[in-house]
TrEMBL record:
Keywords: Cell membrane, Membrane, Transmembrane, Transmembrane helix, Transport. Coiled coil: none annotated. Gene3D superfamilies: MetI-like (1.10.3720.10). This is Sugar ABC transporter permease. It comes from Devosia rhodophyticola. Pfam families: BPD_transp_1 (PF00528). Residues 86-301 form the ABC transmembrane type-1 domain. Belongs to the binding-protein-dependent transport system permease family. Its main location: membrane.
Amino acid sequence: MSLATSPASAQPMTASRVKQERRKAFLDTRMSYLLLLPYLLLLLMFGLVPIGYAFGLSFFDTIDMVFWGPTNYQFVFDDFRVPASVVNVLTFVAIWVSMTVICVGALSLMLDSVGRRAATMLRTVYFLPGAVTSSAIVVLWLFVLDPSVSPFQPILQMVGWVSRADVISGIGLAGVFALMAYFSASGGWIVVFGGALASLPTEVMEAARIDGASRLQLALRIKLPMIWRSIVLMGILSFATGLQLFVEPQLMGMAGTQFAQNDWSLNQMAFQYAFRMGDFGASAALSTMLVGSSIAIALVIVFATNFYKLD
């Protein structure tokens, strides 16, 4: 009797359970969107709306408020200073992103191999320079690069640099800006990587140690492939941030009049168009192209690396 009725009684229970699972999934999804709502509002207010406004403004002559199509874009392309600024920014980005990916990755892996207390203390030390604003970082580095007061005075003088101008000329402005950006941003990424490495499954690490993996092999063959998405994300965000370089070259005039350049980076050019020439249309055109280039390159990297593909 029980064998004959069990299939019939099991059917309503299965349907009820499916309904409960669907309701739970719906509630989880709704809660996820609720948690995302503050970020989406901020993205709309301070990201999408300004970009859309700048894109529309780029098609107007903002002096006479006349629509004139792509003329602002043509003006930007015809400006002889823009190609030089592009080369400057790309050189800076290449140095900075390479330095950040290699050094931050190596430091994070090394910190993960030492004791937890020592690693926490060192991460805090690396993070502290990032708590300083960019303008203060520039002023600080103007002292660091001055052989007369720098703590690295013996090294600088050993190379033959006896003045701040010698150091900046020897390293190059792109290299100087890359050093400033690296020491201001690397600490935050080291903390992020510390969290990513701490979340790796311990059973995988233990299995590798039992198989005889050394610390170097464990870092390069086990940990590094498991955090590659964090490295790609760091590269994308660093690239996008590097294209917006502004404060560092804008304040370099403090190092000497020979280093005062108001058109070294693309953001400086956009600033010149808007607040020195009063041409907000050309500034919006250059800014729109800058944002579009960042998004396009980020999308290429994301799709080329299958960034969102589940393993």
